[in-house]
Amino acid sequence: MAYKGVNVSAKYATQLSPFEKTLRECPLDSVNILLTLTKNTAQSPKEEKFRKIRLTNAKIKQVIGDVPAAMAALHEMGWVEQEVDGEPCMVLPANVV
Questions:
Q1: Got the DSSP string for 29-71?
Q2: Across the 97 residues of the chain, what is the mean pLDDT of every consecutive 10-residue run?
Q3: Cβ neighbours around 64 below 10 Å, total
Q4: Cβ distance 96 to 51 under 8 Å?
């Protein structure tokens, strides 16, 4: 079966990017939280509360802070570790959109 204008014998990329590999190492709970954090930041990029993740929050600590792959995914997206008001956080710098 062929589709007009589509080369069905074309080879597709089989290599995963480092970010995709990192996400595949994350538990589903972590991926869901990462999705929510990313969606909130994308929908309201100027809203400061969405550009800071408190790593001391119990739920965040459990599914992000204590999961090396989830922390690596945040780093890949541009988040940086920073202390805010004496508290460890992940912060998305203003120059990252």
A1: HHHHHHHHHHHHHHHSTT-GGGSEEETTSHHHIIIIIT-HHHH
A2: 59 81 96 96 94 96 97 97 96 89
A3: 23
A4: no
Q: Whole-structure pTM over 0.70, yes or no?
A: yes
> Which tokens is 52 given?
């800071």
For the record, the structure tokens of 13 come out as 């990329």
- 54 and 61 in contact (C-beta within 8 Å)? no
> Which tokens go with 14?
């089989």
Count the helices and strands in the chain (H runs, E runs). 4, 3
Q: Contact at 8 Å (CB) between 78 and 92?
A: yes
Q: Judge whether 64 and 74 are in contact, CB under 8 Å.
A: yes
Tally of CA atoms within 13 A in the half-sphere of 49 that contains its CB: 1
- Residues 70, 38 contacting (CB under 8 angstroms): no
Smallest CA-to-CA distance from 50 within 67, 66, 35, 37 is with 37
